[in-house]
Amino acid sequence: MQTLMLVTMLLHFYGAHPQAQTPAEPPAEKQAKPPAQAVLDDILRGRQGPTLVPPTSAVATSLKKKLQLLPDGSHLANRVGRLNKDGDDWRFVFEGDETQASIILLPNQMLERMIQRSVSSQAPLVFLVSGQVTEFMGDNYLLTTVALERSESPNLRK
After folding, report:
1. Model confidence at 8, in pLDDT bands (50, 70, 90)?
2. Rounded mean pLDDT of 124-131?
3. Which of 40, 30, 44 has its CA nearest to residue 104?
4. Does 98 map to a domain?
5. Which stretch of DSSP H or E encloses residue 30?
6. How far is the C-alpha of 156 from the C-alpha of 90, rounded, in Å?
7. pLDDT score recorded for residue 65
8. What residues pair up with 135 in beta bridges, in sequence order?
9. CATH number at residue 60
10. Rounded CA gap, 7 and 129, in Å?
C-alpha cells in the first residue's frame, strides 16, 4: 500500500498523467506561408540594428549577379520600381536591377494609395519607394513608408 501511495505521489509530483497524454502529431510536410498581416505584426514588434540598403547599382554589384534576399531589418531607400499583382499579394518589382528579387508589399495605407494610383492610371506607373524590409520563410516583405510616383516624361530623365 505504501508503495502504491509513493508511486502515485511521484507521478503527481513529476506531472506524469498517463491518461492526459495524447499521441504526437506527425510534422507537417510543408508549412504554408503566413499572411502578410502576420509578417507586419512581426515587424511592428521592433527591430534592432537596421542596415541601410542604398539605392542604384551599389546593391546590384554586392549581390554577385544572382537573386538574393535582403537582410531582415534593413531599410530600402529611394528604390525605383513598379507595382505588380501576384495572386493575393502585391509585389514591388525593382526597375533596372535584374539581380534583385521582387519584394512582397505589406498592406498599409501607402500600398493602398499606390494601388489606387496604378488602377486609375492608363500607363504603368513607376514609383520611388522607401521602407523597412523583413524576411520570413524565404521571402522578403516591405513595409512601405514612402512611395512617390516618378514622372516618365522623357525630357525629365537623364
Report:
1. low
2. 93
3. 40
4. yes
5. none
6. 28
7. 40
8. 140
9. 2.40.50
10. 66
